[in-house]
Automatic annotation (TrEMBL):
A Pfam entry, by short name: HNH_2
UniProt organism field: Halomonas saccharevitans
InterPro entries reported for this sequence: HNH_nuc
GO MF term set: endonuclease activity
Keywords, comma-separated and alphabetical: Endonuclease, Hydrolase, Nuclease
Keyword hit for Nuclease: yes
Record protein name field: HNH endonuclease
Domain HNH nuclease positions: 151-202
Length: 257
């Protein structure tokens, strides 16, 4: 019982937040392998870690927006960390990455993905892979919060159909990989079009569709879901609007004009 009552350290809270952002709402339970792994690393019970994760869920606007709720009882320090994540996601995400990387360096098997029998990562490769997965998960959470868990083009709100799309790719500009302003919340179709250079945002904040689609005489769903968007403004508040320098890079480097 004494182990259950020990105070959470700031380092442990960062690890819990890192794991929280990697899991879906339905995975926040004591039987989840990643929860068990973190509990063992912290010398806590899986129930204790699961409770901390669901405390974070009770503060998460993405969870609330989807009509769900976590477990009440988040501590003041939990609330302070979460508020920092909301107001300064880049800094907190970096801290979470560092915390996760530290324990991964100490134990490369820590929080590894369940084995699929297909690929084996070891040494530096597994540490790099874990850091990237943690960073991408934190980035997704920050993007979902920034855009109120809605596709910026259609307004669609469904967690399984929404993607946090990097405007400038992860590998291209490492310094911007955790910046929520370098992200767009898009549904799966428009995410694929954006990533493939078939959709972009111009310097006037207007949606642009690649000429190769516009010139095909598209009709039906393709016309409604893509071609008819050409020239429409991205309807976002100033505070939520993505970084225009990132959008300009994507328009210049990726868009099929």
């Amino acid at each position: 019982m004494a182990a259950e009552r020990k105070a959470w350290t700031d380092h442990e809270r960062l690890l819990a937040l890192s794991l929280y952002c990697r899991l879906t709402f339905g995975q926040l339970h004591s039987g989840r392998p990643e929860v068990v792994g973190l509990a063992e690393r912290l010398g806590r019970s899986a129930n204790s870690v699961a409770m901390k994760l669901t405390n974070y869920a009770s503060l998460d606007p993405e969870v609330l927006a989807l009509g769900k709720k976590g477990l009440p009882g988040a501590s003041q320090k939990d609330r302070v960390l979460w508020q920092r994540f909301i107001t300064d996601p880049e800094t907190v995400s970096s801290e979470c990455e560092q915390a996760w990387t530290l324990v991964s360096d100490e134990d490369p098997a820590f929080a590894a993905e369940p084995s699929s029998g297909e690929t084996d990562y070891s040494g530096q490769d597994v540490r790099r892979l874990q850091k990237q997965r943690v960073g991408q998960s934190l980035f997704r959470k920050a993007v979902m919060i920034r855009y109120d868990t809605r596709c910026v083009i259609t307004g669609l709100r469904h967690e399984d159909l929404l993607m946090a799309s990097h405007i400038v790719p992860w590998r291209t500009r490492p310094a911007s990989r955790l910046d929520p302003a370098n992200g767009l919340c898009l549904n799966a179709l428009h995410d694929r079009a954006f990533d493939g250079g078939l959709l972009a945002i111009d310097d006037q904040g207007r949606i642009r569709i690649a000429p190769e689609l516009m010139s095909t005489g598209a009709s039906g769903r393709l016309k409604r879901q893509l071609c008819d968007l050409d020239g429409q403004p991205l309807d976002l508040t100033v505070s939520a609007f993505p970084n225009r320098d990132y959008l300009a890079w994507h328009y210049r480097e990726c868009f099929r004009r």
